[in-house]
Write a structure and sequence with these properties.
Keywords: Lyase, Metal-binding, Zinc
InterPro entries: Aldolase_TIM, Class_II_FBP_aldolase, FBA_II
EC number: 4.1.2.13
Number of domains: 1
CATH topology: TIM Barrel
Organism: Sporomusa ovata
Strand content: 5-15%
Cofactor: Zn(2+)
Order of helices and strands: HEHEHEHEHEHEHEHEHH
Number of strands: 8
Mean pLDDT: 90
């Protein structure tokens, strides 16, 4: 199947009550792992890379590989810039052929976030590219208890933001956390349901690693249509290397790369099986 716009995938997910996995990749091994599991399970896929990784990887080369892999895939794939923080980063992703971009202005004032997101949406839509915005604060907390009601998105603000920016999807803060959890997250499902009934676009969960299967189910029933996974893929790769080296200290790099791919595939598969997206490829 060809590349598709993220808007198309998430609207179907909202209609049929499942979540598309938004998996961030950072090299050829993780790219291959995610695509292969999506094909195995016949799931739609959002394949992403965050702007912060631009300084660590050769994104010109990796983005070309992502585009080629998506075009060859037997399932629909959207290429997505995750957590774009700058105009320049968003424009790079559009030039690379990404079908979706996220502008994360959640650390800005509401007015400035709205202003910048609206301008990026205007440009992206003129080129057929979907846009995801973010409201509230899904931070990187050292302690999950630091998350409180002040960080959560208010329905009236979400409605105004979506109406004025015309974004295709909205990432909302309802109790999740980027990075590694220290403690158990407490998701506000009633707030999520209220947001879902207030705005007319699909909702996105960031900080989706390590939740329970029940949390994923309740989130999807409450309106989540995309769940982002990044940290756990990186951890799965690192833990696989550690385990293999511990077993065989003479293991060569080619062998380790193949093991990393298998380890990441196992992690991706576990998440996809929790998202109710199996055999939902359209």
């Amino acid at each position: 199947m060809a590349l598709v716009a993220m808007k198309e995938l998430l609207q179907d997910a909202r209609k049929r009550k499942y979540a598309v996995g938004g998996f961030n990749v950072f090299n050829f091994e993780t790219l291959g792992a995610v695509i292969e599991v999506a094909e195995e399970l016949k799931t739609p896929l959002v394949l992403g890379i965050p702007e912060r990784l631009f300084k660590f990887v050769d994104v010109d080369t990796l983005s070309a590989a992502m585009s080629r892999a998506a075009q060859k895939a037997s399932v629909p794939v959207a290429l997505h810039l995750d957590h774009g923080h700058t105009y320049e980063g968003v424009m790079k992703a559009i030039r690379w052929g990404f079908t979706s971009v996220m502008f994360d202005g959640s650390a800005l004032s509401f007015e400035e976030n709205l202003k910048r997101t609206k301008e990026i949406t205007r440009i992206a839509h003129s080129l057929g590219v979907s846009v995801e915005g973010e409201l509230g604060y899904v931070g990187c907390y050292g302690n999950i208890q630091d998350i409180n009601e002040e960080n959560f998105v208010k329905p009236e603000m979400a409605h105004a933001f979506v109406e004025k920016t015309k974004v295709d999807a909205l990432a909302v803060a309802v109790g999740t956390n980027h990075g590694v959890y220290h403690g158990s997250p407490k998701l506000n499902f009633s707030r999520l349901s209220e947001l879902n009934s207030t705005v007319n676009v699909p909702l996105v969960m960031h900080g989706g690693s390590k939740l329970t299967k029940e949390d994923y189910y309740s989130s999807i029933q409450s309106g989540i249509t995309k769940i982002n996974i990044a940290t756990d893929m990186s951890l799965a790769a690192a833990e696989t290397v550690k385990a293999e080296v511990a077993k065989n200290q003479s293991a060569n790099y080619i062998y380790l790369m193949s093991m990393v791919k298998n380890g990441v595939k196992d992690a991706v598969r576990r998440y996809m099986l929790s998202f109710d997206c199996i055999s939902k490829a359209i």
